[in-house]
Recover the amino acids of this structure.
């Protein structure tokens, strides 16, 4: 048994269409339309969002892919690191905002 | 017979039903020296302060003669190394300019501030010299920030480049109304494709103006060629195959139509003629239809125009994505 998350496996992403191909085709078309074109957001902005999501979801394939995508769309390491900080601070905020629930329950429990 | 490599450029052209014969010779690009004040990590010339190759005075005279006798060659593009370090550089520019040719110089910004690595001579006169001869200046600046620039071109290069740009702007370079052209060159700081040229040019213009008050005319995006120093880096880091795969997967027929080898000749320091500066560094010399190597010392325009361009795996770099040439994207 080898390791999970082999970097060479990223190239096999297209192979998900080996089964249920129509669904994979739908996905890749949607994926290309969303990430591969300038729209209301530029490709660079989309790549930075995807980089942040990659970190939040802890996907090493996506981190490799979107580090490259960011560079190929003219982003720089300062912008990329700020995007990761957005992901990090959102996760911290999401954790902390749940403390409101704790406070609510605490108020209910404590005399 | 071995199976063709998946990176075989000629196979790729045939698969797309393409042939790429020369269309014109409007530019003579002359690499007059491999001596350089810098030693950039991606340099396809392997240029450095240790190199000593120089075109002879006879070679320069021959290039001028070719320019004079062939009015269809309207542009002289002088490159290196740092061409300004060649002892006959100034005369070459002056005489080509006097012939009415458009003269371009691939200029390291830092050469204005670094003294000549061999003679110690100052090159601070260059902005005024360039302006006097209406030279088009083309200079590498891998990014509008220090990190990428110094990583690729050496510590301190970004700061010197900003100072050198200020000096060029001060004599009118990059200022729209002056007609003095200052064009910048971006290339990725690793094995990835360049960003879209127009968007990146807008970023450079905005950032360089806002942070340093600098102006320039055009930004050219170039792809790193998988040869020499950059190839060695890719091999050492196990990235060569992936980079070649990336370039091959991004093959763009429209970019291929516009490759620069179809409209220029590249001349080596020894007078040999090549299809481009990359072929020159790989010693893939051009030959006429009879197989005779082309040289400036017995130059025949029609024989050169009738040559068959020599392609190789590295040509994938010029045809990937939006394409890459000495004038930037080709598609």
């Amino acid at each position: 048994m080898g390791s999970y998350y082999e970097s060479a496996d990223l190239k096999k992403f297209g192979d998900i269409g080996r089964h249920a191909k129509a669904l994979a085709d739908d996905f890749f078309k949607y994926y290309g339309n969303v990430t591969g074109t300038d729209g209301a957001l530029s490709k660079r902005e989309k790549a930075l969002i995807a980089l942040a999501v990659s970190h939040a979801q802890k996907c090493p394939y996506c981190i490799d892919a979107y580090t490259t995508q960011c560079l190929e769309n003219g982003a720089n390491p300062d912008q990329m690191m700020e995007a990761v900080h957005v992901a990090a601070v959102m996760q911290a905020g999401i954790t902390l905002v749940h403390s409101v629930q704790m406070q609510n329950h605490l108020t209910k429990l404590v005399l | 017979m071995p199976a063709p490599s998946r990176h075989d450029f000629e196979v790729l052209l045939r698969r797309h039903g393409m042939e790429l014969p020369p269309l014109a010779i409007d530019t003579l690009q002359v690499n007059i020296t491999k001596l350089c004040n810098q030693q950039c990590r991606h340099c396809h010339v392997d240029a450095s302060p240790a190199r000593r190759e120089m075109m002879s005075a006879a070679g320069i005279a021959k290039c001028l003669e070719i320019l004079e006798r062939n009015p269809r060659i309207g542009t002289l593009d002088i490159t290196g190394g740092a061409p300004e370090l060649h002892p006959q550089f100034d005369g070459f520019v002056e005489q080509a300019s006097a012939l009415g040719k458009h003269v371009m110089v691939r200029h390291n910004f830092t050469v204005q501030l670094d003294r000549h690595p061999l003679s110690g001579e100052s090159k601070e006169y260059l902005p005024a010299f360039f302006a006097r001869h209406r030279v088009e200046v083309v200079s590498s600046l891998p990014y509008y920030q220090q990190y990428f620039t110094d990583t690729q071109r050496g510590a301190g290069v970004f700061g010197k480049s900003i100072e050198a740009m200020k000096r060029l702007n001060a004599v009118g370079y990059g200022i729209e109304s002056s007609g003095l052209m200052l064009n910048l060159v971006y290339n990725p700081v690793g094995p990835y494709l360049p960003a879209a040229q127009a968007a990146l040019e807008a970023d450079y213009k905005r950032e360089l103006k806002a942070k340093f008050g600098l102006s320039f005319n055009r930004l050219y995006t170039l792809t790193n060629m998988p040869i020499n120093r950059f190839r060695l880096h890719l091999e050492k880091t196990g990235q060569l195959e992936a980079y070649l795969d990336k370039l091959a997967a991004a093959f763009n027929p429209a970019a291929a139509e516009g490759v620069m080898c179809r409209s220029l000749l590249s001349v080596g320091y020894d007078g040999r003629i090549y299809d481009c500066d990359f072929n020159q560094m790989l010693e893939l010399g051009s030959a006429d239809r009879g197989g005779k190597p082309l040289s400036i010392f017995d130059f025949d325009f029609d024989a050169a125009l009738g040559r068959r361009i020599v392609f190789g795996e590295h040509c994938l770099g010029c045809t990937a994505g939006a394409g890459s040439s000495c004038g930037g994207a080709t598609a």
Summary: Chain A has a mean pLDDT of 95. Helices of chain A lie at 21-35, 43-56, 60-72, 77-97, 99-109. Chain A touches chain B through ten residues (CB under 8 Å).
